[in-house]
Known about the structure:
Helix content is 55%, strand content 14%. The chain is α/β, with parallel strands linked by helices. The strands form 3 sheets. Strands 6, 7, 8, 9, 10, 11 and 12 form a 7-stranded mixed sheet that branches. Helix 17 (461-485) crosses helix 22. It is elongated and about 160 Å long. The two termini are 101 Å apart.
Amino acid sequence: MDPRPTEVASRSWQSTASLMAGILTAAAGLAALVGWAIGIAPLKSLITGLTAMRANSALGFVLCGASLTILSSNAVPPALVRAAKVAATLALLAGLLTFAEQGLRLDLGIDTLLFHAAAIADGGAFPGRMSPGNAICLIASGAALLALRRAAADWLAAAVAVLSLTVVAGYGYSLYVMHRLASYTSFSLPSALAFVVLSTGILCAGPDRGFVRGLYAEGPSGTVLRRLIPAAVIIPMLLAWLSQEGERIGMYDDPVGIGVMVAAIIMAFVAVIRVTARSIDASDTRRARAEVELDESQANYRDLFDAAPVGLSHSLRDGTLLEVNHAFVHLMGYADAASLRRGWATDLFVNSGERAKMRAEVAEHGHVAGEVELRRADGAVIWVQLHSRMIKREDGPPRNETAFIDITQRKQLEQQFVQAQKMEAVGRLAGGVAHDFNNLLTVIRSYCDLVLMEMPENAPIREDLREISGAADRAAALARQLLAFSRKQVLLPQVINPNVVVQEVHSMLRRVLPSAVACEMKIADDLGAIRVDPGQVDQVLMNLAINASDAMPGGGRLLIETSNCTIDAAYARLHSGVQPGEYVCIAVSDTGTGIDQATLAHIFEPFFTTKPVGKGTGLGLATVYGIVEQNHGHVWVYSEPGEGTTFKVYFPLVDESPEAVPKRALPAHERAAGPPPVVLVVEDDDAVRGTIAKVLGLQGYTVLSAQHGGEGMRVGTAHTGAIDLVISDVMMPEMGGRDFVERLAKVHPESRVLLISGYSDDDVLRRGLIDPAFAFLEKPFTVDQLVRKVQGVLGAV
């Protein structure tokens, strides 16, 4: 239990009293030495005619006072403590040597070491020697200082106080026998008063126990001591003085005088008893009030402890749980506080090393803070922010007071954010690689087709070239999946009813999936509309269905559901990147093997797969993730090993009616007889640009080339004739494809446009749109695809 404020205040007062006593004692000795040095009698004896404080006694008081002053101070360097002990030892030796001189009738000459001439003038057999009583008090005081704050020091100081008070009383009553023994030097009054002050300071230096502690203790005992001890000193002295004066004036010869004396004694003790009783009553009242306030304070603390919204605990250093509040019990998933306290704080930590590290830090610094994992009663692991501090107690071992704040949701959001950043970074890389890869594949496939066109049908190498072309086709499909993951596919979104797409995919899956897999559908009749590219929704459902089928090798149930749903702010806070609002949810569930937590952490990463080598590319779910994110939706997976898996895809609901797929209507174009059509090819990749120019040149077209939009504007402006077709890449330096064709249309409004790319420019990518008035050809493409597309745009047969 921590010390009460009154006790702390008393200790502070006692320490100050001890310090002041040391200073006063040293000052008294210095004053006497000055008196001996310059011959001022009052500095030596206080009252002219009384016995003076001897010079060696004065030196002893200086040593004892300095020692007490140092030992009573706070934060004293060890060197000063050693000096104080040396000073006390010297004072003790001075007393011992003097006492030896007195007892053995020796003259060691130590009493004339200081102020020799003045000491001889003072007269006597040993004029500078201190009294035996003074020597005894000096010995006891030196020993008490060496044993300061121990029980022996209190007893020695108390003996010095009684002896010196007796000498003071002897001077007060003019009783010679009380301050002088036989023919030895008298115990001087200044020395007696100095010893009273010094012994009081020694007693106050150790206030935590014994007699002095009782003086400031609360309750009746402290009150009685504080009232009766002064009375026990003052009343006998007063009565003795009255008795002495009464005897001097003959008061005891008259019975009336004796009665008055007896009455005075009775009244004095009655008064003391009355005052003491009233003090005890007041002390009891204060104590009762303090106990009530303490009970109220403890009740308030208990209410605050139990009602705190964060987990709180008190534990010992070894991990024993002493107290826990309701929030901590709930946080750890226990039925009650008793069940939690039966365990150990160390058992709650997932990593025992973290507990040991924090325990060491608390022991060293008194407090510690950090984030750790704890294991709940049901085995689940949670993250908490921990704040712990050590509380030192007088009535027992120190305790650790610890607060636990649940940060599991915050940690989950942080992990989701980091995962989203990682997916974004991988997506950017995948998109860049796929784009460059498509350019290379365009060149490979085009030149492969050109070679095949010029090679005889019976040439042996034709099969090898077809293998190269087939490999390029497979590589192109892989690149398209990478673009889907990186959300850089070119979209043709429209407002659709998802039920229509689900029904079409469901019919296809029933023919494609193994007969052991039962494919079911549950669609909402009032399902809202969404704005997406219908082909991409097909791809999402097919990928999820095939993935689910693979998870059910022995057969099972596949269910596709649609529903309207509202995502509130609470759900959005737990899922990074999700915005509250109205959504259409498409859920694909299976009764397969399920997915563990380690796999779930990487499930949407490209090329991550749990299938055997050669059984999967690892791009199926990555493609789903990319398509959904590109359409401003969200996909979440819920699964446990052996419990099946559910993928939920959310698309933002739009307040529009579903529309039919727009058809590109290109006006018929009959090329008049005359010069061949002029085609302007704008492409930043030299190899792709050269390939297109060569293919179209072989088809009889007049080809103009430019490396980027800016150069295309210069070439187009400089061309005086008509430009029948503009073939432009979408992503180019200086000027993008969209800006280029829009500007060129002002110079050559007759030009038709064919855009080529693996993905659209930043504006198209950001909005997911492309102008349907422009024809589009996705890289990589073959010679045949390019020629047919060009012919289709120009309207040639």
